[in-house]
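Subject: two folds for Thursday's group meeting

Dear M.,

Sorry for the delay on this. The cluster queue was jammed most of the week, so I only got both jobs back this morning. I'm pasting them in the order they finished. Each block is the input sequence followed by the predicted structure tokens. Could you check whether the formatting survives your parser before we put anything on slides? The first protein is the one we discussed after the seminar.
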Amino acid sequence: MGDSKETRYGGPDFRQELERFIAEGKTVGDIVRDLGISPEIINRWKQDEKSRIGASALAALAGKVRAPEIDVSASRREFTNIYSHGFVRVAACVPEVRVSDPAFNAAKTVELAGAAKERNVLLAVFPELGISSYSCGDLFFQEALLRSVLDGIRAVADATSLMEMVVVVGAPLKIRDALYNCGVVLCNGRIAGVAVKSFPPNYREFYELRHFRPARELPVETIDLCGQRNVPVGADLVFEVDGIPDFRFYCEICEDLWAPVPPSSYAALNGATVIANLSASNITTGKDDYRRNLVASQSARCVAGYVYSAAGPGESTTDLAWDGHAIVCENGVQLAETERFSWKPGVAVTEIDVDRLSRERMTLTSFSKTETVPDFRRVSVPLRAPFGKILPIREFPRFPYVPQDPALRDRRCSEISEIQVQGLAKRMKTTGVTNLVVGVSGGLDSTQALIVCAKTMDCLGLPRRNVGAFSMPGFATSARTRDSASRLMKALRVDTGEIDIRPACIQMLKDIGHPFAQGKQEFDVTFENVQAGQRTSTLFRLANLRRALVVGTGDLSELALGWCTYGVGDQMSHYNVNASVPKTLIQYLIRWTAANNQFGLDASTVLYDILNTEISPELVPGKDGSAPGQSTEAVVGPYELQDFTTYYITRYGFSPSKVAFLAWNAWRDRGAGAWPDIPPASRHEYTLAEIRHWLSVFVRRFFRTSQFKRSCVPDGPKVGSGGALSPRGDYRAPSDGEDAPWLEDLRNIPGEEP
């Protein structure tokens, strides 16, 4: 019967056993595995060779600092920790190198790995052949260099053994009788596996086949490396991190990305959510843009994160030059990059949302493994996420539907406008109808709908007088919105009309016996919906009279929150041009129209007035009768915050607690981050308690009470990847679903500010 660990720690032979392991050049990871003790014990022992800690002291130390078991659930409970929400922090590292000096290069690698660890990075990727340097040429055939490379790998493994992170370094390795260009994956002092380059280039300035064989010529699937036996090797290794769901990474090397079908494409289909690329791409003029496009494109095709590290300062400039360009992308979007042509080491650090990537893949039926895709081997990597408060580095836009870059925003507004116009124009062509009817309230939604109607007539070569625009004042219509509606209709030169709906509404209220008809100030939902229904009914009868289509005005935000009157109400129309446009985006569409004076100065002036008007359905009179007694946002929540929630709930299926985490990081400080052309006085911030409150409102309205309204919405064009809520578009759900799982998840949001 073998001795227990406790007995061995205190036994007389323990110190000799440990000394023997150290003398044999074993790494910390080897000793940890074989003796089953904490890495810190080993490091303390190795650093204290003179005093030689006694066996009893060593046993006591072991009991105090032995590493705990991985506890994923504990990390998942920390609201302020990025790793609780499916993020993984990564670093693309560009260290200083010296040509053919592995000891120096290993030391610089360790320095940069340590800097990355201080920022709670879990995956640090270093350049191609970084331990030797890429530009060694025929020095790769020198035995002294290859031995020194192995020493460098050991040094990096040893020095990073306590860092609780994955470090991927590039190195030339001799396997059997050939050299291979490799990426060595290190974790906790051990070599988890060795990735091998599939496509060594041999054209123009590259002649790698002079030195290296491609991965397909590997004669083995495992090797003994740096005293460690049976290390997996090849171009078919997907590394699965045990303690972090959805974190699976693959390593390809430089030219592999340039191939017609990169190995990472197959890796992604085998489950890899993050691709690491160890590169030594030299720089020629304009190549940086090509790299960015290539990395972004491959991350999009793979629906993956892509961590690209490149050689930089120190490589030989005998015939080539290097810019140290490291890039991190996620599903087609660049998140971070290093400064090019810097003599200082560079690190591009950011988070990759592996949870989002996994969810995205679930919805893509085209993302599937076929018989032609080879099976990859899985390599388990034991790693735990760091604990404590770790907030994201990457920025989450406050307005996910609205680009922050002004030029991109203008281009996006132009494109959305064209989509809306083309959708309505096609419907008119198909039906043979040449007239339109639209209700104009002086609010945001009807304003944008009227703009689309006018542009559609211009597109079809029809007179704008074919648009019948009607204001229909009710019991709470303000003088301001009434005036804005009138001015706008005149400025756009459409056919205008005003129909006072109050007499018809009073008759309806009398007919149904409502208290308001008897002089009581009863402003309930019936009172509101009688007005909304009367307006819609009037529009449909006007459409019959004019042989026209009724153009809807309701937007995506209202559909998400159920803020519309079902049936004969503002939910219904013949065609709804705003169906997939959220409220926050409609404001920018109107502002873009005004800023470009698309309908002249008079129209632009009234458009700016409409943008500065408080959002209200104007159905309930105020106490003094002079202004509406309703504020939409006081009931359903701030549209800017609810649009944020709508985007992440409908587009990605995130849990409320994750949405709250993202919203809190985006909205808790009005002075942080970028704003898309919003004046300082109009910039808001929200506490976590406010975010949680409005999330609960959203969950109840979206998941429980409003789906029946979305199940029978009119046709309308989808304008963006944020999604549409039509059952014929992006979203299909039962009308009688429960909201219990989402309400339960709300409990994971702290009640107080963290």
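Second protein, same layout:
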Amino acid sequence: MLHRIALMAIAAPKRIVAVALLTMVGAALFGIPVAKSLSAGGFQDPTSESTRASHVLSDKFHQGDMQLVFTVTAPGGARSPEARATGQAIVDCAANFPNVANVTSLWTAPPTATSGLISKDGATGLVIIGVTGGENNAQHHAQDLADEVTDSILPAHPGATVHAGGSAMVYSQINSQNQHDLLLMESIALPLSFLVLVWVFGGLLAAALPLAVGGLAIVGTMSVLRLITFGTDVSIFALNLSTAMGLALAIDYTLLIISRYRDELADGADRDQAVIRTIATAGRTVLFSAVTVALSMVAMVLFPMYFLRSFAYAGVATVAFAAVAAIVVTPAAIVLLGPRLDSLDVRRLFRRMLGRPEPAPKAVSDLFWYRSTKFVMSRAIPIGVAGVALLLFLGLPFLGVKWGYPDERVLPKSASAHQVGDQLRSNFADNSETAVTVVIPDADGLTPADFDRYATELSMAPDVPVVTAPTGTFVDGRKVGPATGSAGIAGGSAYLTVGSNAPLFSQASDTQLDKLRGVAAPGGRDVEFTGVAQVNRDSVQAITSRLPTVLVVIAVITFALLFLLTGSVVLPLKAIVLNVLSLTAAFGALVWIFQDGHLGAFGTTPTGTLVANMPVLLFCIAFGLSMDYEVFLISRIREFWLQSGQTAADNDESVALGVARTGRVITAAALVMSISFAALIAAKVSFMRMFGTGLALAVLVDATLVRMVMVPAFMHVLGRWNWWAPKPLTRLHQRFGISESGNQPDPDSTAVPAADPR
């Protein structure tokens, strides 16, 4: 197949490039509007207890799917005429607005139920609105209502200050912010990547080619995501991945192909032969690497949250487009450009300006990467031990990781939702975010005495100031009056609200939740909990319960694919171990910076927790990308190994030659890829900034310390054992294995006997 692609590129380069351009235009027209169809949600497990309870509250008690909260502040206080008039106008507007389930406010609620609707200083009152439409549409309805308040009500009431917040506004503002961040990210990544490519390739045309391939991968993935939205929910954050990874992988693959093409020309091949040989070797490596990366990311579909599943969709689509474009379009462009591929050489221009001669070709043994690899292998054990110790040390902060659910603090402090959340936490006696709602799906036949007994025991749990049941209000184990908060019976179901003074995501919150769940349910009925604390517990449980399966799937896939490539069982194991080690530094940095707040949390608001989805996402993607560089390196090392006498000395020489031939390519590719991911640090949504930081660190550590230092050290220590496999597996590889060099079979001598041959 690869041979035919190369021949097709030679025979019809103009046609291939024209089709690619038309495809790119069509994909852009269809795919770019996809942002309007994406959601900022997807962090909850749709099958969890908290989700089921929320559905009952929405369907039977008209609580709304999301909350929209307005704070109304006036110089004369929340009960002043200005505040009252503004609050009443917002209530009236919301009551007549479609997709509003319920409205509660300081100025319309009964006097006994207003304590939680006015700030401690009396300056601010609340309007709380339940908005329907589910996780995807409620945010849009909330934004429409907020815009109506801004455009119509505020100009008529200039004496009051109004801010919009709540979960619905958080989602809406995350969507808007993310679309802005994408443009900013591209404006940073594209010019910086181009400068690096100019430095690597010299020629401006050669540097522009990877960017063109990346553009095709990005718009192609957008089209795929839009198609997927017709059938299921997709997270808007998948766009960030498709943009960053599309550019990064396209540059990776194109860089490898062009570099190998130049190597073939330098070895004396003519241009057509060089193209054929390049696609048979580097093209095979690209294809194999793409399969490895895609399968590492597809494992995320095993998680129930569509936030993670969306990254699987985007990741697989991006890898596929980048690989196909690199293998098909790049050779056609090379043939079409011919000698012009190296035209507009900026490096040559600078040398002429500085009066420097053209660099003389260097022997492989004189290259920096060859000499550095020989140095590492001459001191393999101390360098290897030091590298492992360093990575483990950098990963130590991850042992103190705490999981939390994303709230409004993921937005910048300038966002109104962030400001409202800060007010609710610091200036209101009752924070609805910390409350626990207990739903009794089947409440038929329960008596008032059953509710009283249950609410009484709930009120005695630690850090519970009040419990509101359908039959009354309970404090410290006794009934103190009629129901003044949120509770009710309808449609054969009932619910109670348990107030909480325990900080979210703390040990006190976990203890309180356990105590509440330990209270015997009324009438022996099933009860279901919801609220932020329970949602966080359910989300973490959904991840941790499936994580072992995901890790095993990724490990098995990686092992199998690397075995097919190398014919060894040792090299896949080495790759898995080193890949995990390369991620420790990134994981430790995430906790140290974003959870613990060091380095100013990179301009974000530290909450003392990490969003549970992000380390999982980082692991799956970074692990796959690490395998990308592993395939690049090991493929070339194996090529030299198969051409050698296959002694221990030949093993070291093959490693040195492989690193010398790929070191510059891998380093340059890693630099460009880290730029693409580091551009995410410019995002104003905190967990995307965390995502970009983690990926950039993981890529840089893997491509430098691991690939260029740890791999040579380990391969020197193992010697010929690197290439060992049991005889049955050796025969299996001879039949089904993949050879980077195309048709070259594995000699029987690649299987090392049981005794150490050294």
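Two things I noticed about the second structure. Residues 436-530 form one domain. The CA atoms of residues 152 and 619 lie 48 Å apart.

Cheers,
T.
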